[in-house]
Design brief:
- With 135 residues, the chain is mainly beta.
- Helices cover 0% and strands 48% of the residues.
- The strands form 2 sheets. Strands 1-2-3-6-5 form a 5-stranded antiparallel β-sheet, with no helix packed on it.
- A hairpin with a 2-residue loop joins strand 7 and strand 8.
C-alpha cells in the first residue's frame, strides 16, 4: 500500500525560476575569425564576469592570437590568462579568456578591444569598441 512513484516533478509550484541568460555579444566577426563575449549569469551590477571566446572557421590555422582590452577609468578590468594562443582551422577549437570588470558606479560598460594574430604568415590587428547592454 505505499503509494508509489517518488519521481521528481517538473514545473511544479515552488520550482526555482530559470536563470535568464543574456545573448552573446559579438566583438568581431571578420575573415573567418569570430570573437564573442558571454556574460556570466552570476554577474552583478558592480562586478561583471565575461568569457571571451574566439573561433576560426577558415581553412588555415591562426597563431599568436592575443586579446587585449581597456576600459574607461570609471571601471577596473582584470584579464585572466587565456586558454592558449592557437586557433585550429574549421572551428575545431577555441581560445577562451575570463574578464572581470568592476563597475562601482553601475554605469553601462564600454570596452575597447585589440585583437592581434598571424594568419597565413601575415600579422593582423583589429580594433573594436564594445558597449554592453544595460541589465
Amino acid at each position: 500500500l505505499g503509494g508509489g512513484g517518488g519521481g521528481g516533478s517538473t514545473g511544479a509550484p515552488g520550482t526555482p525560476p530559470t536563470v535568464h541568460r543574456e545573448p552573446d555579444i559579438s566583438v568581431l566577426d571578420k575573415d573567418g575569425l569570430k570573437v564573442s563575449f558571454s556574460v556570466n549569469p552570476s554577474s552583478t551590477l558592480t562586478n561583471t564576469v565575461v568569457t571571451m571566446t574566439a573561433t576560426n572557421s577558415t581553412q588555415q590555422p591562426i597563431s599568436e592570437f592575443l586579446f587585449q582590452a581597456a576600459v574607461p577609468k570609471t571601471f577596473q578590468l582584470q584579464l585572466m590568462s587565456p586558454s592558449g594562443n592557437f586557433l585550429p582551422p574549421f572551428a575545431k577549437g577555441t581560445v577562451t579568456q575570463v574578464i572581470n570588470i568592476t563597475n562601482p558606479q553601475k554605469l553601462q560598460i564600454r570596452m575597447r578591444v585589440r585583437i592581434t594574430y598571424v594568419a597565413n604568415g601575415v600579422p593582423v590587428q583589429d580594433q573594436s569598441e564594445v558597449t554592453f547592454p544595460l541589465p
